[in-house]
């Protein structure tokens, strides 16, 4: 199936700002789905609120555009009722780890078979550029006009601690890696987390003097390195890219069905 068959063409052109990284994520998500040969009727995309959540409006899958921070809760209901479906949950900073943080850790703990795509642009872009739990100390935002003093979450380490069974990180400057990771995450049996560092030139780039989208993507290239590289030893502050966790563990829907089967005896 051609990639164009997976999109709702009538909703284009999209509403993202010029240079926004979320379009790159959408592009490579569609490539991953296409390369896997998935039937679009077997996919459900669930999103909350925010720039990233608009993705669910552009794909021609079954989709739910839900409440801010509650995408994983809705996705859990979908998966439990229709466990054979592939469930994709695109999220931004807030949906994933601010208002949605509690849902994130418990979805990971339960190991529900779905793919959480965390588009980390370190800012609340849709509502005016406020700092988020992923912004980090020292950045400037509309709610931190001098500098931010809040420490940020490490998405990978948080997902590890919560029990996710597939965890990966890449950036919009590494599109082939996005496709590869998403394919692996979608086919993994369990709760998968793929963090994609995504540029927001409108609010983060401008306020933090990082330039336009091209400049910000160059920063991603220069400030990240593959897991276990020699560069990481020499420059400890580099952010690692790659698959951090990939392991088997009983999946929640399968275990739930065992309970149902036992109750029916």
UniProtKB/TrEMBL annotation:
<keyword id="KW-0560">Oxidoreductase</keyword>
<protein>
    <submittedName>
        <fullName>2-oxoglutarate synthase subunit korB</fullName>
    </submittedName>
</protein>
<dbReference type="GO" id="GO:0030976">
    <property type="term" value="F:thiamine pyrophosphate binding"/>
</dbReference>
<feature type="domain" description="Thiamine pyrophosphate enzyme TPP-binding">
    <location>
        <begin position="49"/>
        <end position="196"/>
    </location>
</feature>
<dbReference type="GO" id="GO:0045333">
    <property type="term" value="P:cellular respiration"/>
</dbReference>
<dbReference type="InterPro" id="IPR051457">
    <property type="entry name" value="2-oxoacid:Fd_oxidoreductase"/>
</dbReference>
<dbReference type="InterPro" id="IPR011766">
    <property type="entry name" value="TPP_enzyme_TPP-bd"/>
</dbReference>
<dbReference type="GO" id="GO:0016625">
    <property type="term" value="F:oxidoreductase activity, acting on the aldehyde or oxo group of donors, iron-sulfur protein as acceptor"/>
</dbReference>
<dbReference type="InterPro" id="IPR029061">
    <property type="entry name" value="THDP-binding"/>
</dbReference>
<dbReference type="Pfam" id="PF02775">
    <property type="entry name" value="TPP_enzyme_C"/>
</dbReference>
